[in-house]
User: Fold Aspartokinase from Hungatella hominis.
Amino acid sequence: MLIVKKFGGSSVADKDRIYNVARRCIEDYEKGNEVVVVLSAMGKTTDGLIAKAREINPNPPKREMDMLLATGEQTSVALMSMAMSALGVPAVSLNAAQVAMHTTSAYGMAKLKRIDTERIRHELDARKIVIITGFQGINKYDDITTLGRGGSDTTAVALAAALHADACEIYTDVDGVYTADPRIVPNARKLTEVSYDEMLEFASLGAKVLHNRSVEMAKRYGVQLVVLSSLTRAVGTIIKEETKVERMLVSGVAADKNVARISVIGVKNEPGIAFKIFNLLARHHINVDIIIQSIGREERKDISFTVARTDLQEAMTLLNENREVLTAQTIACEEGVAKISIIGAGMTSNPGVAAKMFESLYSANVNIKMIATSEIRITVLIAEEDVNRAMRTVHDAFDLAD
Amino acid sequence: MLIVKKFGGSSVADKDRIYNVARRCIEDYEKGNEVVVVLSAMGKTTDGLIAKAREINPNPPKREMDMLLATGEQTSVALMSMAMSALGVPAVSLNAAQVAMHTTSAYGMAKLKRIDTERIRHELDARKIVIITGFQGINKYDDITTLGRGGSDTTAVALAAALHADACEIYTDVDGVYTADPRIVPNARKLTEVSYDEMLEFASLGAKVLHNRSVEMAKRYGVQLVVLSSLTRAVGTIIKEETKVERMLVSGVAADKNVARISVIGVKNEPGIAFKIFNLLARHHINVDIIIQSIGREERKDISFTVARTDLQEAMTLLNENREVLTAQTIACEEGVAKISIIGAGMTSNPGVAAKMFESLYSANVNIKMIATSEIRITVLIAEEDVNRAMRTVHDAFDLAD
Assistant:
């Protein structure tokens, strides 16, 4: 079997953890498997490098930032290889140029285009464990790029696809995907498996297990993922194509507090206004979620939507600067809100799921401000102060507990 | 003009020093020159990385060590490029793979074979300052190598040769080459220029200004070097081919305390014994300096020589293990010794230089234990406790003071 194993920064933060990871990889190797390991930078290394750069130049060129950040993963892979060598197992570390991992040219947010597998195959054939830098690539100028947030997960998935791996294991701080955040819902249950689409919804709704990009790539190339903890031996969660004939109506509940509501009030009731608003925000890379358009008055209408709270200030500035073009009378915003979502591939064929969710929130006296639905999720906007209570209520209503 | 400027680790140890170096490079750039900068790792970075590696594995694989160490210079060049960018000057950092700097495969002690200049030329033509990692290269496997001690100086000289640079400036802690160590001989004088051969003797005799490898390469390719300080504006020392018709008899005095004497006593007076001794040591990379062979007794003779004090223990172990093969009766050693040398291209044609040195040492009551001479230097072994007094005496005898 060819196994790709990815470990995040906290899994290789110090000597003990490096050896812990080395031993887990060697276990697989000694069973006769081919083992490819993908590593992030150790602990807080990347944050430290960013701080160092900003001390020199508050607005460093992105190309040079990537040149700097890439040293973080290179340090991890070299030290891991040394640890495996100390344990008597032949290993070799490779950076993105050595592999080579070809990406687009967009420094700081490059996308993987193609992975050469020749060098990796050569080293695997020599019965070595191959340890590869996550998060980084090279572009057509031979310059180093980085993949942005969730980059190392994406590296692992892309490698698994390129190498036709039999398994792709993502080791994180948590030991799987839960029906809800266990810190808020103590009786939350770990899911044995979820579909790619459900995982995408979980990820975009605040579950910090896997970044969307890696899940999207896994779905596109049919790479089956397992999410596990590097510190325990607990069985993880499998992420794969939907296969079960009968399954849970709802897989889990997710909450996201990084949200704010914007209302563009009193715009002219004519075509193109909504386009202008969302195009303006999109051009500045501000994502918009739940959108509601009033149909109340004749000449004027209101358009409300949510953005990430971290984007609120920029969004408000942009909208106010363009208030006249947008024909808006006022632009208002609200910060003390949160999203709560239920996710489940089973809900498409089951009417009444939304009603059950709304009923449980009503019975808990939680007011719903906005609603958005997709094939496999229902999201409501509520007051931030209600969010933990709402999660537990909904979790109970769908019998998700252990 | 194309100028290669090399700065050591202490010259880029922190933000202020990085900016100091950036400004000095920009001065040359703004005069219309093409500027290539070679950097070492910042301050004690390399030592820190070595310690980190040894914590993981006391005997780390050399390939992985080079993979790790190379991150040091990559960090320096990225930060330097950011500083120049903050000062409004276009700059680009390149690591050894991006250049590419082709070396032999010997990890930790690779030798430069060939430098591709295409990428550097391309960036210079775009009017950028090009900042290149010293000390490192890539071998035929695309693996990262390091050049060993004095590596960054060698990188700079090799780049100057490959780019047909008009100047190669080596910035160090000191502002040039002196007639003697100014800490010991307060009235020592800075030399305006020295020949490659003299510099080689200075370097191998304990002057820490430049490593021999870089001087040898400069001599081979006719690269004229200037040694200067990154912290002052003092005129440095030029190192070039001998040109002056008339010149100083003696250029300077050097002392080396990293020395010990070994005596292999009572070996059989037959051919091949000396070969066996020095071959044994050479195979273990132990360099031998002053050699004296007694011609006293008929059947047995003594062979004495000096080694670096740091090699003494290993040398003694090796010799004792092979005592019977070497036909030796005893092997003795002495640690409290030092070498003092006078260096000067003028001495070849001037008899009496040695006599003058010996006379001055005699008048200062310094006992000479061993003597070795070359075309341009005379070295004597004396007691370590006499070394500072001996230096000042000889320095005065040859009128080297300011």
